[in-house]
Amino acid sequence: MVILITGASRGIGAATAPLLTGSGHTVLLVSRNRRRLEEVAGACNREAGKDLAFTLPFDLSDLPDLEKEFVSRVQALVPRVDGVINNAGQLINKPFEKVRTAEARSLLDINFIVPAQLIRICLPLMEGSALKHVVNISSMGGFQGSSKFPGLAYYSASKAALASLTECLAEELKETGIRINALALGSVQTEMLSEAFPGFRAPLDPEEMGRFFQWFILEGGRYFNGKVLPVSVSTP
What is the number of domains present in the chain? Predict the structure, then answer.
């Protein structure tokens, strides 16, 4: 299988990649950070003993203007895409009244618009796949009824929008055979969590959550479609 992972240069995305390549799958790693992508891909390929990890340095906020270039670069690397993990995200931890409009728009773009457009762009790339599974990475911050935290209003709202999109697209695209699910994550010890909650120690590390991602992208579509699943030990 060929799995496209966004936000693959660090955190859970980077931890998931070697688990997939270690079990013989191909990964297409997407991030703005070329150097860190190359480090992740190099480690994957050394461990696998062959080239199964490919880098695609790309600023996903450029998709509206560079959609054709993105598709062309994907097709130059892999024959098709079987699964997508929409893992890239942005976080602003700032009191609501101090968040500027430009900051809010940037966050909503990265956390909601970009994943939505990436799904649309990948639909034809997934034709002929036996998997056809899209996993959107949401957050317990955007999960209805969960604990909410000051300073994360826009972040949580953007993740709630992504969760709702998941439910909508599962219905709208069901005739295509594509399965779309969202994982609402709780606390995982990533750089993003450390930025939001300095000094807090999460009960799970990226490698542990990466093992769950590995299983879910490959097998979760057999059991779930259009579901927003809380994956949380603590919040935070």
Answer: 1
Cα separations (Å) of 62 from 7, 70, 109, 136, 217? Answer: 15, 9, 11, 19, 26
Each residue's pLDDT tens digit, 40-87: 999 999 999 999 999 999 999 999 899 999 999 999 999 999 999 999
Rounded CA separation 236/226 (Å) = 25
Is there a domain that residue 236 lies in? no
Q: Which residues contact 11 (CB under 8 A, 6 or more apart)?
A: 87, 188, 190, 191, 192, 206
Contact 91, 192 (CB under 8 A): yes
H-helix or E-strand spanning residue 28 = strand 26-31
Whether 74 is covered by a domain: the verdict is yes
Q: Is the peptide bond before 64 cis (omega within 30 degrees of 0)?
A: no
Does 155 qualify as catalytic in the annotation? Answer: yes
d(CA 102, CA 108): 10
Residue whose tokens read 């670069």: 73
Question: What's the CATH number where 16 sits?
Answer: 3.40.50.720
Asked if 36 and 10 touch (Cβ cutoff 8 Å), the reply is yes
Is the Cα torsion angle 30, 214, 22, 13 positive or negative in sign?
Answer: positive
Going by pLDDT thresholds of 50, 70 and 90, the confidence category of residue 146 is confident
pLDDT confidence band for 17 (50 / 70 / 90): very high
Run of H or E residues at 140: none
Contact 6, 88 (CB under 8 A): yes
User: Which of these is catalytic: 143, 154, 155, 212?
Assistant: 155
